[in-house]
């Protein structure tokens, strides 16, 4: 009855869903309703380092993410983005599995010998074309993306705010005036909310502008940052959030959203600044709205993964420190060569001034195009410098018999660049990589640890990537880094206070916030890479991966037991999904699982063997006891475990007396059974009995007497520690539970610092009873979005400690 009411409410909510209306009015395609099929939403918080996320969580800036960790059983993981630590490099690795697709955000394009930036549509398209020639399978095929530099397999019109696509622009332009009016009316509250946020952000931007001017910042730069800040922190965030919710209502299999606000504020004010952390509150709210939409979808079973593509360093601009740009400094330093190229400080011979631009114009980037006079070039490629963030690259320098080591030494000693590395022979990818820093020459990888220092979280990985980057076809002949060990504060070659793109300890320390049952491809590493995230996403979307519960990190003598009435794997939303039940179990990584109400080959649940399916998904052994056995259709209880197990007994318990318990509830005729196995753990043999008792009090009392009798708990074979668990359909103060309490102890009442909680409509009818020698360490009854949907019961999870007993010889 309650399930039918809940399903009716969900249907009516869907009919009045704004997201459903938008999709319908704009004629956007939808996938067929597949509520059991997996869907994935990838949310990227651009530029947020792992240490800064911890600070934001501690300061209450991101309450929803904190709730995911505390209540929804998400796990905060480290992630190494690689070098260069830039968004396009991470996106290429995530979407296509290609590492170091670009050497930096801005670089000299090998094919055209022109300087380009990754937000230029032609450059982004060229890089993606290179990747596609390797026949890579794009991750976002059939899905959508917001604020991505690559289309990554999305169809035309599904890449929003991206260099190469117009998103829903054509659909909006072709919509009738009536359609536009209806869209505005149905989304009136969202528009009011967005407008209010814009006003608030404008006020904060003006305050920030005044502070910047008081600190001596340039007036024009401060003024230009106001519309940029509003556009990035409010408009793109709100439009991307609304768009993602529409795509969820359409049932797209995978959706990628990049939230840029923190990264943009960090570039301007620094990653530790109050304004940058203030933006995280809005990002947290946007994630909460997307997450709630995902968990109320009836088209797919969506999962939400949250990660950052890199961190940021709190940097000091090179120009601010030395009073000139890196291009000017190199022009002077390189004039000491025997036959120096003619380089004019600050601009090229063509009169191209330093270009300062970024998406929406907010990141002040120095990009010097330094060329020889065309008449004197003799067909040679132009000398060029790209200087973006803490990584600069010098191209096509005519050495004129000067050694590369001398050039690197001059750049470090005269131009005050912390570290310069190069290949001894640029024409050979296997040539050794040497360099220079303030202490003299270095060789890689031999001196890598010295350059990275003890504070770096990934020194070996970063050095390996720096060596590999020297061989990139678009990399410079000399790679100049604004940070190495011993520098008080990293340098950036742009006019910004926060920076990334190189190998610093914070910029290479990203995070991944994942559901606990999603394991990295190689847990031994202790961190993720974007390629690992791609592999996990592909495995999740295939929906058939074992969840390897034997890898949980409980102490050896601790045993985790779960009892769970799974309601034939049909959730309160009406969705039949053994995969969802498996995810609930996997999220808590129990050693032993007692399940009730499983269907095996029943027509009502699609003819699936649910016991076998769950065991395969969880990589566990299973013993199933059918309480109902009609032809090929069966229904009953099971025990699953990854520990050594032996079946002792399974059978039917006494039913109600004739003529009683049938008048008002036909389900009272349902037979009830039990299954008994012996588990070996840490030198002990533990007896586990799973049962599901009847609906009437008299029937339950007969069944309890049977369980306490010589066929079950009083059986001579039932020696040692004993656990009786399942759905007893009885409250703790009932005669049935009191009778059991004379022989066994209720785990919820024995647990330290635990208040007993209900598992079905907030009442306690699922129980775990333990023999006297077993100590209860912890009890959990997770009431999360997933557990509230997956079944009408909540799982009961108990960590126990069994004393070691020597077996007699």
Written description of the protein model:
The chain is an alpha+beta fold and 809 residues long. The protein folds into 3 domains: 2-98 and 136-312 and 509-539, Alkaline Phosphatase, subunit A (3-Layer(aba) Sandwich); 317-497, no CATH class; 558-655 and 666-801, Endonuclease/exonuclease/phosphatase (Deoxyribonuclease I, Chain A, 4-Layer Sandwich), CATH 3.60.10.10. Helices cover 33% and strands 21% of the residues. The strands form 7 sheets. The protein has a 7-stranded mixed sheet with strand order 2-19-8-1-7-5-6, sandwiched between helices. A 6-stranded antiparallel sheet has the order 11-12-16-13-14-15. Strands 22-23-21-20-31-30 form a 6-stranded mixed sheet. Strand 22 (621-630) and strand 23 (633-641) form a beta hairpin. Helix 9 (188-214) runs antiparallel to helix 10 (219-250) and helix 21 (697-708) packs parallel to helix 22. The longest helix has 32 residues, at 219-250. GO terms for molecular function: endonuclease activity. This is Endonuclease/exonuclease/phosphatase family protein. Residues 562-793 form the Endonuclease/exonuclease/phosphatase domain.
């Amino acid at each position: 009855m309650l399930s039918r009411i809940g399903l009716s409410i969900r249907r009516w909510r869907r009919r009045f869903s704004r997201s459903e209306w938008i999709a319908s009015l704009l004629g956007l395609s939808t996938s067929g309703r597949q509520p059991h099929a997996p869907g994935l939403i990838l949310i990227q918080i651009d530029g947020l380092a792992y240490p800064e996320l911890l600070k934001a969580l501690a300061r209450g800036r991101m309450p929803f993410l904190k709730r995911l960790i505390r209540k929804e059983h998400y796990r905060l993981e480290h992630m190494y983005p690689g070098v260069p630590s830039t968004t396009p490099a991470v996106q290429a690795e995530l979407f296509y599995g290609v590492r170091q697709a670009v050497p930096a955000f801005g670089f000299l394009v090998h094919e055209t010998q022109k300087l380009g930036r990754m937000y230029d549509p032609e450059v982004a398209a060229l890089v993606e074309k290179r990747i596609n020639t390797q026949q890579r399978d794009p991750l976002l095929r059939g899905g959508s993306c917001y604020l991505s530099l690559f289309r990554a397999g999305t169809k035309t019109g599904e890449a929003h705010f991206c260099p190469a696509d117009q998103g829903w622009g054509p659909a909006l332009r072709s919509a009738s005036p009536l359609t536009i009016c209806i869209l505005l009316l149905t989304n009136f509250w969202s528009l009011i909310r967005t407008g209010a946020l814009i006003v608030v952000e404008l006020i904060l931007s003006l305050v920030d502008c005044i502070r910047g001017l008081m600190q001596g910042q340039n007036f024009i730069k401060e003024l230009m940052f106001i519309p940029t800040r509003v556009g990035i922190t409010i408009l793109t965030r709100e439009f991307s959030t609304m768009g993602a919710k529409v795509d969820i209502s359409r049932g797209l299999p995978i959706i990628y959203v990049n939230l840029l606000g923190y990264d943009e504020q960090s570039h301007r004010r620094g990653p530790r600044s109050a304004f940058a952390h203030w933006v995280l509150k809005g990002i947290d709210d946007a994630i909460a709205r997307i997450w709630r939409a995902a968990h109320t979808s009836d088209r797919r079973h969506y999962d939400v993964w949250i990660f950052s593509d890199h961190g940021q360093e709190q940097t000091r601009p090179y120009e601010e420190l030395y009073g000139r740009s890196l291009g000017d400094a190199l022009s002077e330093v390189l004039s000491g060569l025997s036959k120096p190229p003619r380089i004019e400080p600050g601009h090229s011979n063509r009169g191209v001034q330093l270009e300062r631009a970024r998406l929406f114009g907010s990141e002040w980037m120095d990009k010097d195009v330094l060329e020889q006079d065309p008449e004197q070039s003799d067909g040679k490629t132009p000398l060029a410098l790209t200087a973006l963030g803490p990584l600069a690259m010098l191209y096509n320098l005519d050495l004129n018999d000067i050694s590369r080591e001398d050039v690197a030494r001059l750049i470090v000693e005269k131009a005050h660049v912390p570290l310069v590395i190069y290949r001894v022979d640029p024409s050979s990818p296997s040539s050794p990589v040497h360099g220079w820093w303030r202490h003299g020459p270095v060789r890689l990888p031999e001196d890598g640890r010295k350059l990275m220092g003890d504070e770096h979280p990934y020194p070996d990985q970063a050095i390996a990537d720096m060596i590999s980057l020297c061989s990139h076809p678009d990399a410079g002949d000399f790679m100049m880094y604004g940070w190495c060990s011993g520098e008080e504060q990293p340098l950036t070659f742009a006019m910004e206070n926060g920076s990334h793109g190189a190998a610093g300890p914070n910029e290479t320390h990203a995070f991944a916030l994942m559901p606990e049952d999603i394991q990295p491809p190689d847990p031994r590493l202790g961190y993720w890479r974007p390629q690992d995230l791609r592999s996990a996403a592909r495995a999740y979307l295939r929906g058939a991966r074992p969840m390897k519960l034997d890898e949980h990190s409980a102490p050896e003598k601790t045993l985790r037991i779960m009892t769970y009435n799974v309601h034939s794997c049909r959730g309160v939303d009406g969705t039949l999904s053994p995969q969802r039940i498996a995810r609930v179990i996997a999220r808590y990584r129990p050693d032993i699982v007692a399940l009730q109400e499983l269907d095996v080959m029943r027509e009502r649940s699609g003819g699936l063997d649910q016991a076998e399916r769950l065991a395969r998904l969880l990589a566990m052994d299973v013993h199933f006891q059918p309480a109902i056995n009609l032809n090929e259709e069966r229904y009953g209880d099971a025990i699953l475990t990854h520990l050594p197990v032996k079946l002792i007994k399974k059978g039917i318990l006494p039913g109600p007396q004739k003529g009683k318990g049938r008048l008002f509830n036909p389900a009272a005729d349902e037979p009830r059974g039990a299954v008994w196995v012996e588990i070996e753990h840490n030198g002990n043999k533990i007896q586990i009995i799973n049962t599901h008792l009847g609906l009437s009090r008299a029937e339950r009392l007969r069944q309890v007497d049977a369980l306490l009798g010589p066929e079950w708990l009083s059986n001579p074979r039932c020696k040692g520690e004993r656990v009786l668990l399942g759905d007893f359909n009885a409250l703790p103060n009932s005669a049935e539970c009191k009778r059991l309490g004379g022989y066994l102890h209720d785990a919820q009442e024995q647990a330290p610092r635990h208040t007993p909680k209900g598992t079905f409509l907030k009442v306690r009818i699922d129980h775990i009873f333990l023999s006297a020698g077993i100590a209860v360490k912890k009890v959990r009854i997770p009431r999360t979005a997933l557990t509230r949907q997956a079944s009408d019961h909540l799982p009961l999870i108990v960590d126990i400690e069994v004393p070691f007993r020597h077996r007699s010889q």
